[in-house]
Amino acid sequence: MIEVDEKKMPWSKGMTITSLFQTLNDVEYCSVVRLNGKLISRPQFTDTPVPDNSIIQLLPLVAGG
Amino acid sequence: MGQINLKEIKSVSYEKAEVKKGYTDQSLRINLSSNDIIIDPIEEKIKDKFIGGKGYDLWLMWNAVSGDTKWNDPENAVCISSGPLGGTPGYPGGGKSIVTAISPLTGAPIDSNVGGYFGPYKKFSGFDVIQLDGKASEDTVILIDGIENTITIYEAFDLPEDSYELSDTLTRHFDEKKPVNVSVVTAGPGADHTFFGCLNFSWWDAGRKMVRYKQAGRGGIGTVFADKKIKAVVARFGAISMKANSPADLDALKIVTKTHAKEINELDPKQNRMALVGTTHLVPIMNDHDCLPVHNFKFGSHPESKVIGEDVFEHIFDKGFDGCWRGCAVACAHGVKDFSPFTGPYRGKKVFVDGPEYETVAGCGSNLGIFDAQTILEINFYCDAYGLDTISVGTSLGFIMECFENNQITTEHTGGLDLSFGNRFNALKIIHQMAKGEGFGTIVGKGIRNMKKIFAQEYGADPNFLQDIGMESKGLEFSEYITKESLAQQGGYGLSLKGAQHDEAWLIFLDMVHNFMPTFENKAEALHWFPMFRTWFSLCGLCKLPWNDIVPEDNKNTKEPAKVIKHVGWYTDFFNAVTGKNIGPDDLITMSEAVYNFQRIFNLKMGYGTREHDTVPYRSMGPVTVEEYKSRYKRYDDQLIEKYELDISNMTTQEKVAALRKNREEQYELLKDAVYERRGWTQDGIPTLKTVKRLGIDFPEVLEVLKKNGVK
Predict the structure, then answer these.
(1) A64/B310 CB distance under 8 A
(2) CB-CB contact of B92 with B189 (8 Å)
(3) For an engineered disulfide with B448, which of B160, B199, B265, B470 has Cβ 3.0 to 4.6 Å away?
């Protein structure tokens, strides 16, 4: 299992942030996540594996600066 | 009592105006030439139209200066205001001051939004806004004492040179027993010798028992302040509660304050963690999105950036409450204690560094090829102590480093200094020189626009190359974001009123990452709504961070998530609770629109404010050099083929650079057309008569300026 924004979700082998996002709704504004405490940005989503038991927070960075 | 010498020149007692619904309805003018202290009422029609904050500042300045006024003329006025909502304890970001003057860098009005307690203390002492004009003959300290109800002008002797010590000394001098009652505004020696001197606004950090600082950084307001021989303006006031602002509906104010603060306390730890890392989380995010300035904005990322981001600063920052206003839940004003500089007058001593924020890390770190947190801290410390804007310092140093590496300037010009990227020792040497008015630092301190002229006319440098890589717009150095792939953000910089600062619009992610504004009309709409809404914070005395840096969990389900409409609603409630008015969210935009257009016409009055001044250097639009093109060749090649439908098979890289440039520059001009139309301006970028009438700013003197510029 993994936890996404405090909600439990099933984990699958080979899961990446991109594949995880394909199972989530309303993530088009999410360009950064915190994966087990580390910031991961959209350009790295495809190449970033999500280990089992991960804790993920979706960061709603919409218009910073 | 510190070892300083203050000689009283003039002192007046006054009857303190009662604060009513966020306003005192009084202004204070101090003329340094005549030592006149003038308290005036603020007319109801001015209050209705200009709201407060930056609106009040601009109105006073408009009446103080003529179109011929230069930054160092006595009539130039430094205006400092709060705003009707400023000074609300516990409301996140609820204690900002807004400062304006005619800028030494741009020749037009500049505004800066800054933390610290000065704005609220000044208001509760009886004044919505203060205007400082004239020029003193000797170093001067001004005290606005809202406890004793006196205003005193002192000639000052034996004061510490730098802001770091001066604010501390004056804080303890004016209220040794309760230093929390004092907030000090100071410039520093950097303001005497550069055009980008900043102002430090202090507050007493009760937890650490020391003075802390935030900076009104942009545009050289500190330089104007120092030119008037003002060493410091001090506000003194006692206990503050929510009742101090005399809100129309205290219960409603308590509810909205508690609601917003509670949300931040719950969500910030899950989102950007600003209460832990400030804005340093942006370093890795910008790097990963190719938006972190590296080597004078040539590149957008660097593998070593990982050593100057949140991972490092989270461990370096001193733990404790870091709100620059009382009870602010965002509390992002972090600092580093017991830092020991390795250069300069504080070498080997232990100091507290207020910062760094993202802009300083990016501007004085990656942009200079300095990937070393200790050096960034040292630059941050000395810029604050000397009163220098870290953004202009970083962007200017980046410019001279690229000039040096391209032989546009040599050691013959730099006094023997090797200014290659990454040379941290010589970067610091230039900063020390700027503070002392010595060596090549005096040239750098004039800012990029002036350096371009000097390098071309006196050193024989290539003016076209300097124009392309000199990151300034309207004379103001760029803040620290790469905009090459975001046309909307190019407009965010180039079409902003004061110059290249991102506080009007930050659209990079919406545009570049999410592609949510594919058409010119979409971009123009964003370049209307966001600048207007962001302006509103500076009318009211607020910080914008709580609006969109911590957002509700259900925000993504709203119609327009970028606007964070739930928070817009809370700000409307906040405004109504304090002022007793009954406005809706759309009215916030209209309020700002009036002041925004007035500021544009103010630019026009000063000889700017037209299309030709809304330009940006090509470095902000695309690759200037072959090296830059090659660093992202696939992106650029694809764009030439797919977007511009060019056959590039036989093109050299130089030809591709030229083809891309032609197209991108055309796009930028088309963007200007669309934005001007959306804002109700002529194609020369001037508000139309219809627009000023709709906004109710059709004062005779405004119409006169428009008429002079062909708008009837």
Answers:
(1) no
(2) no
(3) B470
